[in-house]
Amino acid sequence: MRISRTSAAFALAAALTLTPVLAACTPAASPGGSATPTPTVDDGAPSPAPADVMFVQMMIPHHEQAIEMSEILLAKDGMPAELRELAEQIAAEQGPEIERMRSWLRDWGMPEMGDMAGGHGDHGGHGGMDGMLSQGELDELRDAEGDEAVDLFLRQMIAHHEGAIDMARDVIDNGRHPDVRALVDNIIASQQAEIELMTEWLDR
């Protein structure tokens, strides 16, 4: 059985995430000593599992980097129209997903990954997440031109998408929130389709 790098990253994030989530799901003791159930999130919606929270915390910077890669490609001259269209599609799809995930974290009372790490906007530093590019790889994409830029973008984005799919599959067994599961299903379907398209372009 292959163990992805995401599983290790989940374990690292658990120290900061697991306790608050479990606390939200644990009945609170009343002054008289009896347990008082904690209200569920969002008027009856199920509370997220730790795996749901960690997935959302990690997928936000993962999506942000995909948008950054797309913007780098779109800033270049002479890129094929179909590749520009794909980059625009990636940014258009993943931008709203980021906002949705941020709203979930706010509703759950949970921080974003950058807030937990006291971090900043440098997405090149999240090397523990599957498919994430290093700062050097992002700089390489920025510096590339012409056919080299096309080839590099496709190879980097395929690996990035594959990482996102691995992360999504990791949460299927241990997550329980229906909104997260719906997002997971969409990520797997849409990004797998884009991988197949980009692979066809590389094989031309």
Can you tag this structure with a few keywords?
mainly alpha; Ferritin-like; 7 helices; 2 strands; 204 residues; 68% helix; Ferritin; signal; disordered N terminus
Q: Write out the CATH superfamily name.
A: Ferritin, core subunit, four-helix bundle
Label the CATH architecture. Up-down Bundle
Percent range for β-strand residues: under 5%
Strand segment tally: 2
The number of helical elements comes to 7
Shape: elongated
Count up the domains. Answer: 1
CATH fold category name: Ferritin
**Radius of gyration over C-alpha positions, nearest whole angstrom:** 19 Å
Spatial arrangement of strands, main beta sheet: 1-2
Largest sheet: number of strands, sense, barrel closure? 2 strands, antiparallel
Spans with pLDDT under 50 lasting ≥5 residues? Answer: 1-40, 117-127
Write the H/E string, N to C. HEEHHHHHH
Percent helix among the residues? Answer: 55-70%
Domain DUF305: 52-202
Keywords: Signal
Region (Disordered): 28-49
Signal peptide: 1-23
Describe this structure in words.
This protein is an all-alpha fold. The chain has one domain: Up-down Bundle (Ferritin). 68% of the residues lie in helices and 2% in strands. Strands 1-2 form a two-stranded antiparallel sheet. Strand 1 and strand 2 (35-36) form a beta hairpin. Helix 2 (50-74) runs antiparallel to helix 3. It is elongated, with a radius of gyration of 19 Å. The model is unreliable at 1-40 and 117-127 (pLDDT under 50). Residues 28-49 are annotated as: Disordered. Keywords: Signal. Pfam families: DUF305.
